[in-house]
């Protein structure tokens, strides 16, 4: 016997939330619990901000900047909606600001512009100047592929993300030697992800970038760049100069509209092969470092990302020591970010694994992520 | 297994994981509730804010109730109201019953497009508080008493509103015919 409640009940279907949405929501909660100040900040997050994709207020703060952006930013957002899993938000922040600056700052000269000819720009390939400075990255990329870990069957990485002095979130990720990646805000979350077979390498929002990074480990630098940019759905990569210019102008016009609506004023940046090259370098840094933060414990991902970063001429590499351990400091200066901000990655000089990532955006608190890695046996978690 | 009330009590004593466990128990239900009322994209954005709001207000949770779900729906509803207030009218889903057709074509097929229109119209004629209780009972599977907890009203009031809503629905043009048709069809299939 059907009654009126049954009929109304039949109207109550709803599209289920995506699994990563639950994870993001829990991360928001954990960030709030870790720092009561965050509670107030999160409470202030505008409900209109439907593009918010991660848990950190830092990213929310930069949303406005993202609107004033190039195709690359829209691409980032697309990936986020498809299922970013939170880690490495600090990386994204600096990179996001960077893409904005590269595209909008018409006075940015990019002192270390890599490519000069349009065919290189069209394919996303780079003419690598001063590559000797970045040779340690290529050397390390070659050596880490042969590393055999001594104990356990997986890496457990704890990433602590801090904005200014506030801890925004803590993300745990398990990287098995079989190349699976499980992530969560606690070890318990990881165990659940294993049970549910939520392997980020296969199904997460970062999967395309991770696959491109793995491919880059065994590709030529130019092919590696193109594969990463294509994985990130860069709208300019692979286009001939005429089509590239049309796309560029379209995006510039769209950006101008948004800036105007917001009461801002900025001159459009004219199309040029150098401007496109800057855009590609910026996008490559963004997506490669996102892949690294997501796939840190996977040797193939690390090797591929190091090779990709070595193709960016405005990236410098120095030997350093962190807590008594030999490290490499990889610096992407303002040239990568359109003359403002910067990002510094510190990686273990033997394994290539992330130790620290510090990004700076003028006018915003510094964002840093500290990585603690240990060998574990997955079954013992 | 510890009740939600016990876990919330523990969280007040500093056990961070206890509150997360409460969230994990109810996240699918609260997520669906938000999606039914605001659409999936907005629901995904709002869910974290609901948890933070619930965490902030957990001191006010009445620990005589073991099950926190009705209370969490109430927190979610408050957040939804803020969301609706902040949105331009044209951005809001005109009628929640439209949400179902957006993703599940079979719901429309099973119920019939005309029937949906009849029901939608009948629902919109209800008083807002009647509609709210009815939705909580029909969609979220709550009892009238639990719906009362969600809406912060006496249980007797919720029962009365539910009864009024059901009567109004049964008497609404088209709905009685729809029920008759449904039930006679079932008779024929016996």
Brief overview:
The complex is a heterodimer of chains A (about 375) and B (about 190). Chain A has about 375 residues and is α+β, with helices and mostly antiparallel strands. Chain A contains 15 helices and eight strands.
Protein architecture, described:
The complex is a heterodimer of chains A (381) and B (190). Chain A is an alpha+beta fold. The relative contact order of chain A is 0.18. In chain A, helix 11 (207-216) crosses helix 15 (299-309). Chain A has helices at 4-10, 19-34, 36-43, 57-61, 63-67, 71-83, 89-104, 118-123, 135-144, 187-195, 207-216, 221-231, 241-261, 273-295, 299-309, and strands at 154-163, 166-176, 181-184, 315-322, 325-332, 342-348, 354-360, 367-376. Chain A has an 8-stranded antiparallel sheet. Chain A has one domain (19-380). Mean pLDDT of chain A is 73; it is low at 37-122. In chain A, 45% of the residues lie in helices and 17% in strands. Chain A has 15 helices and 8 strands. The radius of gyration of chain A is 21 Å and the shape is globular. Chain B is mainly alpha-helical and 190 residues long. Chain B folds into 2 domains: 1-92, Rna Polymerase Sigma Factor, Chain: A; 101-190, Winged helix-like DNA-binding domain superfamily/Winged helix DNA-binding domain (Arc Repressor Mutant, subunit A, Orthogonal Bundle), CATH 1.10.10. Chain B is 76% helix and 0% strand. Chain B has 11 helices and no strands. Chain B has helices spanning 4-12, 16-38, 40-56, 69-86, 97-103, 105-111, 113-125, 128-138, 144-151, 155-171, 175-188. In chain B, helix 2 runs antiparallel to helix 3 (40-56), helix 3 packs across helix 4 and helix 8 (128-138) packs across helix 10 (155-171). Chain B is elongated. The interface between A and B is large, with 41 and 63 residues.
């Amino acid at each position: 016997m059907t009654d009126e409640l049954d009929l109304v009940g039949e109207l109550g279907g709803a599209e289920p939330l995506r699994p990563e949405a639950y994870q993001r929501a829990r991360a928001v909660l954990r960030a709030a619990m870790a720092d009561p100040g965050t509670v107030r900040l999160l409470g202030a997050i505008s409900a209109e901000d439907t593009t918010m994709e991660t848990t950190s207020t830092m990213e929310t703060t930069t949303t406005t900047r993202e609107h004033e952006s190039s195709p690359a930013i829209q691409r980032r957002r697309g990936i986020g909606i498809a299922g970013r899993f939170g880690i490495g938000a600090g990386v994204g922040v600096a990179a996001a600001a960077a893409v904005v600056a590269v595209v909008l700052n018409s006075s940015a000269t990019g002192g270390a512009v890599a490519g000069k000819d349009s065919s290189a720009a069209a394919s996303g390939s780079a003419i690598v100047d001063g590559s000797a400075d970045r040779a340690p990255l290529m050397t390390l990329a070659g050596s880490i592929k042969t590393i055999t870990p001594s104990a356990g069957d997986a890496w457990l990485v704890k990433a602590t993300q801090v904005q200014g002095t506030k801890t925004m979130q803590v993300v745990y990720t398990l990287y098995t030697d079989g190349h699976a990646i499980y992530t969560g805000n606690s070890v318990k979350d990881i165990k659940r992800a294993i049970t549910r077979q939520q392997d980020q390498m296969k199904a997460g929002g970062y999967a395309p970038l991770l696959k491109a990074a793995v491919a880059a480990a065994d590709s030529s630098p130019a092919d590696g760049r193109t594969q990463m940019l294509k994985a990130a759905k860069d709208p300019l990569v692979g286009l001939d100069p005429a089509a590239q210019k049309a796309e560029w102008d379209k995006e510039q016009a769209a950006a101008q509209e948004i800036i105007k609506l917001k009461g801002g004023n900025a001159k459009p940046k004219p199309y040029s092969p150098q401007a496109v090259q800057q855009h590609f370098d910026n996008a490559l840094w963004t997506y490669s470092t996102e892949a690294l933060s997501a796939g840190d414990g996977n040797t193939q991902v690390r090797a591929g990302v190091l090779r990709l970063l070595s193709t960016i001429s405005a990236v410098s590499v120095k030997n350093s020591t962190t807590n008594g351990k030999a490290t490499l400091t990889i610096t992407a200066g303002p040239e990568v970010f359109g003359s403002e901000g910067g990002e510094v990655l510190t990686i273990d000089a033997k394994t290539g694994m992330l130790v620290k990532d510090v990004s700076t955006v003028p006018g915003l608190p510094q964002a840093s992520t500290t990585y603690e890695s240990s060998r574990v046996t997955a079954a013992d978690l | 297994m510890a009740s939600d009330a016990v876990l919330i009590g523990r969280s007040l004593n500093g056990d961070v994981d206890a509150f997360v466990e409460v969230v994990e128990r109810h996240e699918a239900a609260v997520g669906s509730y938000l999606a039914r009322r605001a659409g999936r994209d907005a629901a995904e954005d709002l869910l974290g804010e609901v948890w933070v709001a619930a965490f902030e207000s957990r001191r006010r949770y009445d620990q005589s109730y073991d099950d926190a779900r009705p209370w969490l729906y109430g927190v979610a509803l408050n957040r939804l109201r803020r969301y609706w207030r902040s949105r331009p009218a044209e951005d809001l889903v005109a009628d929640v019953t439209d949400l179902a057709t957006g993703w599940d074509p079979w719901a429309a097929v099973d119920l019939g497009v005309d029937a949906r229109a009849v029901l939608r119209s009948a629902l919109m004629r209800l008083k807002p508080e009647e509609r709210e209780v009815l939705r909580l009972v029909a969609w979220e599977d709550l009892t009238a008493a639990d719906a009362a907890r969600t809406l912060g009203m006496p249980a007797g009031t919720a029962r009365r509103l539910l009864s009024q809503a059901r009567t109004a629905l049964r008497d609404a043009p088209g709905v009685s015919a729809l029920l008759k048709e449904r039930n006679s069809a079932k008779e024929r299939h016996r």
